Please model this.
Amino acid sequence: MQSKQERNGGDALQDLCARVRRFVDEVAIPAESPAIARDVAALDRCVARLRVQAREAGLYTPQLPEAWGGLGLGWRSLAQVLEEAGRGFLGPAALNCAAPDQPNMLTLLRLGNPEQQERFLAPLVQGAQRACFAMTEPAPGAGSDPSMLRTRAERRGARWVLNGHKQFISGGVGADFALVLARAESGVTLFLVPADTPGYRVVRDIGMVTGYQIGGHAEIVLQDCEVGGDAVLGEPGHGLEYAQLRLEPARLSHCMRYIGRARRALETAQAYVTQRESFGSRLADLQQIQAMVADSHIDLHASRLMTLDCAGRMDEGLSVKQHSAMAKVFVSEAVNRVADRAVQMMGASGLSDDTPVSMVWQEMRPFRIYDGANELHRATLARRLLA
Ligand SMILES: Cc1cc2nc3c(=O)[nH]c(=O)nc-3n(C[C@H](O)[C@H](O)[C@H](O)COP(=O)(O)OP(=O)(O)OC[C@H]3O[C@@H](n4cnc5c(N)ncnc54)[C@H](O)[C@@H]3O)c2cc1C
Model:
């Protein structure tokens, strides 16, 4: 189904993108500060304030269907909106279209029954609660290989008891509930676990190179954590399939936001090289700098095209197993190159807290590892293509 913006044609979408750009420039970027970048409590307070303004501006939850208060955009349109939102570190969270809750909402929309949607999805949409998605475990548990999952779920009458250990869980600190993957007798199953369930414990916020991650990256222990039969999301035994279903749009959405973020680093570096001089010429007039600018635009353009192509396939309901993996590998490496060149063009300023470039550079690096490490995607793609 087409959204109002899409029914009104390209002009309405361009107008929406311009409004998001203005919001990011005038509201979200001025709220950025290195002092809060890794302070989970301060980030929550800041984002709560920004969301009030995003609602007033009519830009809140653009990814959701209109029935859930969103803008009902298709994936191709969303790609452009998320790129604009992603220029700001706080833009996606302000619009409530940041990871991990954007894919968490999508998962609840797809798999949740009406009671689960009312209890868990509605507060996420309103921004009254936060959630996290807990799959990764310390060795010898699941990392790149989800079949190594060791968190257990055992039946106790009509209830379930979960035991396990999770790490690097984005948004886990202060999350109101977690979507937890655990191994049951019937196979890997996805559970909704409220954070105040006895036995659910956030051990720590694992320090991470990234900044501005709402809820940090948590280590979580589940010890005799008992939940009701209604905690199962979807069907028991289908957890790994659901994790894949969540990951495909999740990694493409990361591509969309990070194209915006890398564009911001490039814009900042371009402004620098047009002003800074060295040995009697502007940096922008030096061929080696010009090559870095050109290569970065080529990387962003190719990233956009791959992302839009995959988004178009999703709009048509086609499988994107292969295309989302190719887009993830290419875009994650391209935005790393763009951010790295931006640092290089700016010298020490590019590594300082005085400009956003160093944080963009730090943020881009993990994208080659999460949502499936690039080596894993290459191995899977090659296996499929050679079969
Ligand atoms: C910033 C960040 C946020 C994250 N958020 C979440 C979250 O919200 N929820 C969650 O569950 N997890 C999260 N993770 C964890 C992430 O999903 C894992 O880091 C990822 O799946 C890789 O697992 P691992 O770190 O255990 O690496 P390992 O499995 O130990 O792999 C290490 C390296 O080995 C290589 N490798 C592994 N397997 C292969 C293979 N088959 N072929 C070739 N090379 C291979 C890759 O280079 C890989 O980087 C996050 C990680 C980061 C960095």
